[in-house]
Design a protein that fits this description.
Length: 168
């Protein structure tokens, strides 16, 4: 058959893409991610090996100024660490600011365990770079490294005892 007579439909393109193997894995966060996670109180009890496992499943996500990272009342499905920029934590219909987060700040820790609804919204005040760890990725780490769960639960219990519910 001549090339000029060949037609490829959208469905065939999708089929070819799916059959050609899986998409390449997103790049891991490497040492930068490990160093940042190490400074987060929630992960401070983890070994370097465990931090590497967590960082390998996390991703870097960028948000423009004014963009909501999470919304109050939405289902919590990820934990975030601020790498660069600032964000405000707001609550209620008047969007009352209850906190400001900068590099090293974090939110969404209860989402890792419960997947419940967000208790506040987090909005980028400046261009924002975050590390995002999804609940599914966290569960994968815990299956492979059960000690991670225990160390995080101890850190989370201490945080809740000190501050009460602090999930964004």
């Amino acid at each position: 058959m001549e090339r000029s007579n060949m037609r490829v439909t959208g469905g065939e393109v999708v089929g070819l893409a799916l059959s050609s193997g899986s998409a390449p894995a997103p790049p891991t966060l490497g040492r930068k991610g490990i160093a940042l996670l190490q400074r987060v109180p929630l992960f401070e009890g983890l070994s370097r090996h465990q931090l590497r496992k967590v960082a390998a499943l996390a991703e870097e996500v960028h948000y423009g100024e004014g963009r909501a990272v999470v919304r109050e009342g939405a289902r919590g499905d990820a934990f975030y660490v601020v790498v660069d920029g600032t964000a405000k934590v707001v609550r209620g219909p008047t969007l009352r600011r209850i906190a400001r987060l900068g590099p090293g700040g974090f939110f969404g820790e209860l989402a890792l365990l419960t997947g419940g609804t967000r208790t506040a919204s987090v909005v980028a005040e400046t261009p924002l770079v975050t590390i995002r760890l999804s609940r599914a990725a966290f569960q994968e780490v815990v299956k492979r490294e059960p000690g991670v769960a225990l160390k995080i639960m101890v850190a989370l219990a201490g945080r809740v005892r000190h501050w009460g519910s602090v999930d964004g």
